[in-house]
Write a structure and sequence with these properties.
Number of helices: 13
Strand content: 15-25%
CATH superfamily of the largest domain: Metallo-dependent phosphatases
CATH architecture of the largest domain: 4-Layer Sandwich
Largest sheet: 9 strands, mixed
Helix content: 25-40%
CATH class of the largest domain: Alpha Beta
Radius of gyration: 34 Å
Distance between the termini: 123 Å
């Protein structure tokens, strides 16, 4: 009897019941499921699934692919508004209302593949084929991106759920939910796809100014196609320039001659870098001098354009133009071989060079001839820059051989301060002597054309603006002996022109022009 009573008491003891029949998760003591606990578990699974999908998309929603001649990166990211962004560094981005849903596609166009680009330009018919194949390239890239995103989202969710729950069933449920969420998101984007959105893009960055920059886009695009076909042949012909130079009998540089390449007004044209590299190698250049406007708008994305300076492996002396910002100058200064002058002097390859940046920052203004269209206030600023530089030259412990200004209008106060002033800005070559000052040395002014063909602006006229640069030869006394004017393209003919000028008397600043020598 006592034993039965003891068993009954043990059965009534809650602690004993828990030891004998442990409660299952989500089940109360009466054997019924606990609604609050089950709701908490469900919310936890959903939260882990959403976090896992987000992490998976961010980590794995990315593929590299080729779109025509471009190396491109496609990226998916979670969002609430859908759409597509096409990044075109350094110009900015196109925003397309291409689809709805919780996924945003970013297409970032990277570098041009040189081999494929050359093949396109060499065979004009292949440009049409490339435009057709580019559609298939995008479609294939998007398909690979979708599969990669699904796999990455499911895998990330499974790993996260396993770490959080340590329960096979809940981990499997989270993985299945992740698969459903990802597929439904991509399905929503595909179901709401609007191909016509590409006809109505919105612009960000420099592309906001596209209409002001390029004018009639269709006409310039047509002109550029013809120009590009010429330009590839022209740049190839530049390799023959050194042979042309050696055949000119009027001047033979002495062994101790210092060779300087003067460039200006690149205006973001990458073809200019190709031409500069060729001339630096063929002419055995010692120093490159850039008198400004290396960019168009002076923005941060454009700063990547100056990275080609370091590839030249020659001293690169630069002053800021009116299209260049302080940010541009800082980007140039970060190049290992670059020297940025701003009312300062430097000595490179035995040449003492003084320079000052343009006092204006007017990226939205068209280039106008020096001294025209300037208000009195602006004219005073431009001339004042020359006066500041003249004072700096006067205080220099070493005689200055070359002075650099961007606008030729700044050169007037430099008359008699040094033998040579280099400038740009006008996109047209000009050679002149500054008014002589009593008892002071004569000063020659050399204004360079546009080494970048005035950028996109150069395509607005009937004929493209030619790419221009000059090679200057200095003797052992660092006086200008001769200079070669190099012009590539822009004439409607596939030719490179080299025109040599020899200074008969460097102190008098007189020169004898030589007939242009075309290379076809």
């Amino acid at each position: 009897m006592d034993g039965e009573q003891n068993e009954q008491r043990a059965a009534d003891d809650p602690a004993a019941r828990r030891r004998r029949w442990p409660l299952r998760r989500g089940v109360d003591r009466t054997g019924r499921r606990d609604p609050l606990r089950m709701a908490g578990v469900t919310l936890a699974v959903l939260l882990v699934t959403l976090v896992g999908v987000t992490l998976g998309v961010l980590a794995g929603g990315r593929v590299d692919t080729d779109i025509g001649p471009f190396q491109a990166t496609l990226t998916l990211s979670p969002t609430t508004s859908g759409g597509t962004t096409v990044d075109i560094p350094p110009l900015g981005a196109l925003l397309l209302d291409s689809h709805d849903g919780p996924t945003h596609l970013t297409v970032r166009l990277g570098a041009l593949d040189q081999g494929r680009t050359k093949a396109l330009i060499d065979d004009p018919a292949s440009i049409q084929r490339a435009s057709i194949s580019a559609v298939e390239d995008v479609r294939s890239g998007v398909m690979r991106l979708g599969l990669r995103t699904v796999a990455s989202a499911v895998l990330a969710t499974l790993l996260l759920a396993a770490l959080v729950f340590r329960n096979v069933r809940r981990t499997a449920v989270a993985g299945a939910l992740a698969l459903g969420v990802t597929l439904s998101s991509l399905g929503a984007a595909a179901a709401t796809l609007r191909p016509q959105a590409i006809e109505e893009p919105r612009y960000e960055g420099l592309l906001v100014n596209a209409p002001a920059i390029v004018g009639d886009a269709r006409r310039i695009a047509n002109d550029y196609t013809r120009y590009a076909e010429q330009l590839q042949r022209l740049v190839g012909n530049v390799s023959q320039l050194y042979t042309t130079v050696s055949a000119l009998p009027v001047f033979e540089p002495a062994p101790e001659t210092t060779r300087v390449l003067h460039v200006s007004d690149m205006h973001l044209n990458p073809t200019g870098w190709q031409l500069i590299r060729t001339v630096v190698e063929q002419f055995d250049i010692d120093v490159v001098i850039d008198t400004g406007d290396i960019t168009d708008w002076g923005s941060e994305p454009e700063a990547s354009f100056v990275g080609s300076i370091g590839l030249l492996r020659k001293p690169y002396v630069y002053i800021r133009g009116n299209h260049d910002s302080a940010r541009t100058a800082a980007a140039v200064a970060r190049q290992p071989n670059a020297i940025v002058l701003n009312n300062s002097t430097t000595t490179v390859a035995g040449l003492t060079i003084a320079g000052i940046g343009d006092p204006r920052f007017t990226p939205d203004k068209n280039t106008s001839p020096a001294g025209s269209g300037l208000t009195q206030q602006v004219a005073d600023q431009v001339i004042g820059a020359g006066e500041q530089l003249a004072q700096t030259i006067g205080k220099s412990p070493r005689p200055v051989n070359i002075a650099l200004v961007h606008d030729p209008a700044s050169a007037g106060p430099l008359a008699g301060a040094c033998p040579l002033v280099l400038a740009g800005h006008t996109h047209a070559r000009q050679v002149s002597k500054l008014p002589e000052q009593p008892g002071r040395m004569p000063t020659q002014l050399l204004v360079e054309g546009s080494t970048g063909g005035a950028g996109l602006r150069g395509l607005e006229g009937e004929k493209p603006t030619p790419l221009s640069m000059s090679v200057l030869y200095f003797d052992r006394d660092k006086l200008l002996q001769a200079y070669d004017d190099i012009t590539v393209g822009g004439t409607g003919e596939a030719q490179v022109n080299l025109e040599r000028h020899v200074i008969q008397d460097p102190k008098a600043g007189e020169q004898v022009p030589v007939t242009p020598t075309p290379t076809r």
